[in-house]
Design a protein that fits this description.
17 strands, Glutamine Phosphoribosylpyrophosphate, subunit 1, domain 1, 6-stranded antiparallel beta sheet, alpha+beta, single chain, Rossmann fold
């Protein structure tokens, strides 16, 4: 796990020393991603420089240092990630006559390029990766990102140069970098809490999409291609579903997951696992422990606010499995203290409030291990989100109502504030009462009478019309909403899963984990997102995903083989903090400053009037606008942090 950066200058304006200096400045901005070593390589004749910041995981010796040359000298690689089938690929290469200097996966990849070419090698890899490889013979720079988007990679053109980096902060080291805010990207961010790929908050820079590669020739001409398509995988899986009963399907899943997990347990440094006590992380932990000769180190974080605390559940699972468990209870003040650091860590505006506990658990975990496995991806693959299970089913029934009746139902729900609904529903047993039920009812009121895409848009957006706050911005239309894509899915459930897999998963969930973990030099591995598991999950019939009003049915059956059902069956909580109450209390002064209407008018990006209306409604308790307000606050905090004088609206 590392940070990579570099540049290609087709005009070859700088000599070797100047190129190296530019790349070194870029890498210096990424030292948190790779504190164990730094390397620069430049080719003045090609106008190219590659940089690398190393977090040593496999082969801690200098034989694993980067940028790395193939033995032939043809290929030079700067790589971020881990490839988990490097052993098999190495053996195949050795049978072909290749000899290795060390035992790093980096060397296997670069020698694979020499033997099979870049594209064929990439298709053989099992793992997470983002890399830049230069073919010195063809004068060709290729940028590649892994299939699911676990590892980040930005690229763009700056002052005539092509530049790339793991994080945006590296681009600030380049002369001529104009940090202009892209208003369309800002509009998309306000609606979702993240900037969807290939967009970027800065004009002229974009995210390389998951499963994509781009080839850049010596003259700067670029050609993009896709070596793995989530859309193709989803459609193939739906067209040719798995023909197996539940028992066979569970056995197949266990075989796949065991292989995925055990491959990710290989490291030359201490290793552990994030354990929240939920279905996904408990499954990963259970499989790890079943395949470990010693107690696995597990880590969880707890809050004193019971509605947000999963530490007790995590501890119960850890005790049953026999892991070496560490937990940290965090006070509200300790959690709030990390807020000022968020804009610098996340580089772009990022509004998922669970960034706070994710950073806290990463900091705690890094004190004990260098690698941690995570359970991310289970909701998207196995239909675990409430919007799949409960919301979609309820909405389909309500959509059949005549428009006057659905309108009346919407008005009736809106008569009570979310807080009042929480009070009314408080008489229900805890297991039958979803957290933040009032907020969910108000979202339901907003989607009555909507079609599938509008329904989904409202459920995943704190305010679907927030884009209107950005003057001159267009309404965001992510690729999954395109009519030609939606029409290829026969049902709303599959389409929603696909939409989440290509937007919310890489641009929110995986971004959150990558930036939080790498901010403290911790490598996070996600076995559920092994592409073989993903392809298997898309072949599962809906009945093996949702049954009895519960999602992730098949994954649950596998977990029950390791952990008693009673320890893991409880309402889905997510991984958040009580931002709604904090904004009305200890964070109010901070929020008031960032939401100052005069400052917003002067900055010229957001219309402060609707924002103030929602802020007032939130403070009064009439509505809970925590997620929308957090999006605005994170943008304003980021804007002030990132040299406001240079951020001209585009």
């Amino acid at each position: 796990m590392c940070g990579i950066a570099g540049l290609l200058d087709p005009e070859r304006r700088a000599g070797g020393d100047a190129l190296e200096a530019l790349a070194r400045r870029m890498v210096d901005a990424l030292r948190h991603r790779g504190p164990d070593g730094h390397g620069i390589w430049a080719d003045p004749e090609a106008g190219l420089a590659l940089g690398h910041a190393r977090l040593s995981i496999i082969d801690l010796s200098s034989a694993g240092a980067q940028p790395m040359h193939s033995a032939s000298g043809r290929y030079v690689l700067s790589y971020n990630g881990e490839v988990y089938n490097a052993g098999e690929l190495r053996a195949e290469l050795e049978r072909q006559g290749h000899r290795f200097r060390g035992h790093s996966d980096t060397e296997v990849i670069v020698e694979g390029f020499a033997a099979w070419g870049v594209a064929d090698t990439v298709n053989r890899l099992i793992g997470m990766f983002a890399f830049a490889v230069f073919d010195r013979k063809e004068r060709l720079l290729t940028l590649v990102r892994d299939r699911l988007g676990i590892k980040p990679l930005y690229w763009g053109r700056i002052d005539g140069r092509v530049a790339f980096a793991s994080e945006l902060k590296a681009f600030a080291a380049l002369p001529g970098f104009p940090p202009e805010i892209d208003r369309d990207a800002l509009a998309a961010y306000l609606c979702t809490g993240y900037v969807p790929a290939p967009g970027c908050i800065y004009r002229g820079i974009e995210k390389l999409e998951p499963g994509a590669m781009v080839e850049i020739r010596a003259d700067g001409a670029a050609r993009a291609d896709r070596y793995w398509s989530a859309l193709d995988v989803a459609l193939r899986g739906r067209a040719v579903p798995l023909e197996a009963d539940a028992s066979e399907a569970c056995a197949n899943l266990e075989t796949l997951l065991t292989d995925a997990v055990t491959r990710r347990m290989v490291a030359d440094v201490p290793l552990g696992v994030f354990l929240s006590g939920g279905i996904d992380s408990s499954t990963v932990t259970a499989v790890m422990q079943a395949n470990s000769a010693i107690p696995v180190k597990s880590f969880s974080i707890g809050f004193h606010e019971q509605g947000y605390n999963e530490a007790d559940a995590a501890k119960a699972v850890a005790n049953h499995l026999g892991t070496d468990h560490t937990e940290l209870y965090v006070t509200a003040a300790e959690a709030q203290s990390v807020v000022p650091r968020l804009p610098q860590i996340y580089d772009e505006p990022f509004g998922d409030v669970s960034q706070i506990p994710t950073l806290l658990v990463s900091e705690m975990t890094r004190k004990h291990v260098t690698v941690a496995l995570s359970g991310d991806g289970g909701d998207e693959l196995f239909a675990g989100y409430n919007r799949y299970v409960q919301g979609h089913r309820a909405a389909r029934a309500l959509w059949r109502l005549p428009v006057p009746l659905s309108g009346a139902a919407s008005q009736a729900i809106s008569l009570l504030s979310p807080r009042q609904w929480d009070s009314v529903l408080g008489v229900l047993p805890a297991r039958a009462r979803p957290r933040q039920a009032g907020d969910k009812l108000h979202k339901l009121a907003a989607v009555l009478g909507a079609d599938t895409s509008d329904y989904y848009r409202v459920l995943v957006s704190p305010w679907a019309d927030a884009w209107r706050l950005v003057e001159g911005a267009r309404r965001p239309e992510p690729a999954p909403f395109a009519a030609d894509i939606r029409s290829r899915f026969r049902d709303g459930l599959a389409w929603m899963q696909y939409a989440d897999t290509v937007t919310y998963l890489p641009d929110d969930i995986l971004t959150k984990v990558d930036r939080a973990s790498m901010a403290v030099s911790l490598e996070a591995r996600v076995p559920l997102l092994d592409h073989r598991v993903v392809e298997f999950a898309w072949r599962l019939p809906d009945a093996l995903k949702i049954r009895g009003g519960q999602g992730k049915w098949l994954l649950r059956q596998l977990l029950y083989k390791y952990v008693p059902k009673a320890l893991v069956e409880r309402p889905k909580m997510g991984f958040g903090v009580p931002i709604d109450a904090w904004l009305r209390g200890p964070l109010r002064g901070w929020a008031d400053d960032l939401l100052d209407p005069a400052a917003m008018v002067q900055a010229g990006f957001l219309d402060p009037v609707p924002i103030q209306v929602k802020w007032d409604e939130h403070l009064s308790g009439r509505r809970n606008w925590q997620h929308f307000l957090w999006n605005v606050l994170m943008f304003e905090a980021w804007r002030r942090e990132q040299a406001p004088a240079a951020l001209a609206g585009a």
